[in-house]
Amino acid sequence: MTYKSPTVLYYSITTIIISVVLLWGAVSASKHLDIGTYELNNGHFSVKFTNWGATIISVFLPDKYGKVADVVLGYESVDTYKNDTTYFGSIVGRVANRIGGAKFTLKGTTYKLDANEKTNMLHGGHRGFSDVVWDVTKYQKDGETPSIVFTYNSFDGEEGFPGALKVAVTYSLVGKYILSVKMEAKSLNKATPVNLAQHTYWNLGGHNSGDILSEKIKIFGSHFTPTDANLIPTGKILSVKNTPYDLLKPTVIKNKIKKLPHGYDINYVLDGEKGKKMKVAAVVWDEKSGRSMKLTTNAPGVQFYTGNYIDNVKGKDGCVYEAHAGLALETQGFPDSVNHPNFPSQIVNPGQIYKHRMLYTFSIEQ
């Protein structure tokens, strides 16, 4: 039998105590931060947020007749977001999407993560970034370029991830109908995977207008990453040609979704010139309202999800959301990239800064 020396034992106990204190402090601090709502308004449209999950809770836009509607799915009260299982409007991380087996190996060390979808991890675990209170460090409600900055300090070991991470998300209204999202994260002491995503569900007809099946979409991705039955990527990168995933031309969603068992929930490999910082990911049109949305990003992929499993969810204004009530376009790194060396790396080393940009440009057809 091998015994630890008193010195080793002391340091082991000390490490455990420090870890518990850090975990308790993070949770305690999160509980005691005020949870509020915030609005940005530039005179043309307004966007509302809560610092629970750095979440978009509403986007108000006029239609071609001048009638204003809220075009994102959400809840009546901020408190409801605490029990949300759909990730309505939130920032998800530390690693968005799925990690197979809830584990990965980095520099010879295997990290076991919090499994919250069977044996896999989804959107950062049971207590991902969507389920914590963020600090509001800057806030300018109106003016020419209103903006708000949410920050969160993720501790070493949170949900199983290595290293402390300092995260900031900036939302800004930068044009008549333009919403900018900037996500940044700095690794403080260890190499760690980072893949943040903005998880708003859009319905350009209005959040309470029914399903999105009659909307048109074009996705600028000629390849996708196929998955197994648990939505874990196989590691292959395939062409969309001759598949229901071919949305390279404007397509009415209902015309192709019927070819899939449940609907769209797949990562597209975005086209675009190498080295180009921003590229178009997708365009969505709602002909009845005249609203359209163009999404540009610097991320390599976009997850297209048609809200397949929304079921009797009580939302805003007394509305009850059902399947396909909204669509999500989550620009991101490829799912499970930590376990597929052929996918673009999500590893951020100490001192490096992860930078993820999104630009939503809305248009109103008169």
Distance between the termini: 81 Å
Q: Can you give the helix content as a percent range?
A: under 10%
Low-confidence stretches: 1-31
Q: How are the strands of the largest sheet arranged?
A: 10-11-12-13-29-23-22-17-20
Counted by DSSP, the helix tally is 2
Rg to the nearest angstrom? 21 Å
Say how many strands there are.
29
Q: What's the average pLDDT?
A: 92
> Biggest sheet: strands, sense, closure?
9 strands, antiparallel
Structural class: mainly beta
Task: Give the quaternary arrangement of the chains.
Answer: single chain
Q: Strand fraction band?
A: 35-45%
The global form is globular
How are the SSEs ordered, and which strands pair?
Elements: H1 6-32, E1 37-41, E2 46-50, E3 55-62, E4 68-70, E5 91-92, E6 98-99, E7 103-106, E8 109-112, E9 121-122, E10 135-140, E11 147-154, E12 165-175, E13 178-187, E14 192-193, E15 197-198, E16 201-202, E17 216-219, E18 223-225, E19 238-239, E20 251-252, H2 253-257, E21 265-269, E22 279-286, E23 291-297, E24 301-305, E25 313-314, E26 320-321, E27 327-332, E28 347-348, E29 353-364
Antiparallel strand pairs: 1-2, 2-3, 3-4, 5-15, 6-9, 7-8, 10-11, 11-12, 12-13, 13-29, 14-28, 16-27, 17-20, 17-22, 18-19, 18-21, 21-24, 22-23, 23-29, 24-27, 25-26
